[in-house]
Amino acid sequence: MIIPFINFTGQACEAISLYETVFSVQDKQISFYKEMPAEVKSHFPTETENYVLHAEMIINGTKVWIGDTTQRITPGDIVSLAVPFSSEKEVQQAFGKLKVGGTVLMELTPTFYSPLFGVVKDKYGVIWHLICQ
User: Fold this and answer.
1) Measured between alpha carbons, how far is 133 from 67 in angstroms, rounded to an integer?
2) What is the mean pLDDT of residues 65-86?
3) How does pLDDT run across 77-102, given as a tens digit for each residue?
4) For residues 131 and 91, is the Cβ–Cβ distance under 8 A?
5) Burial 10-36 (b: 16+ CB within 10 A, else e)
6) 126: which residues sit within 8 A by CB, 6+ positions away?
7) Quick one: pLDDT at residue 76?
8) Is the pLDDT of residue 14 over 90?
9) Contact 106/29 with Cβ under 8 angstroms?
10) Can you give the chain as a three-state secondary structure string?
11) Phi and psi for 5 in degrees, rounded to 5?
12) Is the per-residue pLDDT at 18 higher than 80?
C-alpha cells in the first residue's frame, strides 16, 4: 500500500480541521512534537511543540498521513508518498534503489516509532517516506 503524506510547516492542525468539514474523515489519530521523547524533542525549536508529528486518518476511504515539517517546503514538496514495509531488508532495498540519482533527505535510521525509517527524493523529484512497521 502506498499512502499519500501531506506536509505542512505548522498548519497541519488547521488543515485537518478543514478536511474534517469537507470530507468524510474516520479513524483520526494525531501525535504532536511535544509528545516525542525528551532526547528527540531537544533537537527541535520550542515553537514546534504544537506541530503535528504524525497524523493519520481515512479520508473518503483512503488512508492519508499528515504532518508538520521543520524544513522549508517548496511547491511540489507538500505531498509525498509513504510506503510501509514489513522488514528492514525491504526498506533498505527500496531506499537504495530510490536514492540512485536522487537526494537523501533523512538517512535510514532507527527511530522511537520504527526500527528503520528514511526519506529520499528520487531522481524525478518524488519524496518517499520508507518505514519498517
Assistant:
1) 18
2) 89
3) 788 999 999 999 999 999 999 999 99
4) yes
5) eebbeebeebeeeeeeeeeebebbeeb
6) 80, 81
7) 72
8) yes
9) no
10) CCEEEEEECCCHHHHHHHHHHHCCEEEEEEEEHHHCCHHHHCCCCHHHCCCEEEEEEEECCEEEEEEECCCCCCCCCCEEEEEEECCHHHHHHHHHHHCCCCEEEEEEECCCCCCCEEEEECCCCCEEEEEEC
11) -125, 115
12) yes
pLDDT in tens, 22-38: 898 999 999 999 999 99
Cell 504544537, residue located: 50
- What's the one-letter identity of residue 28? K
Pair type for strands 79-85 and 127-132: parallel
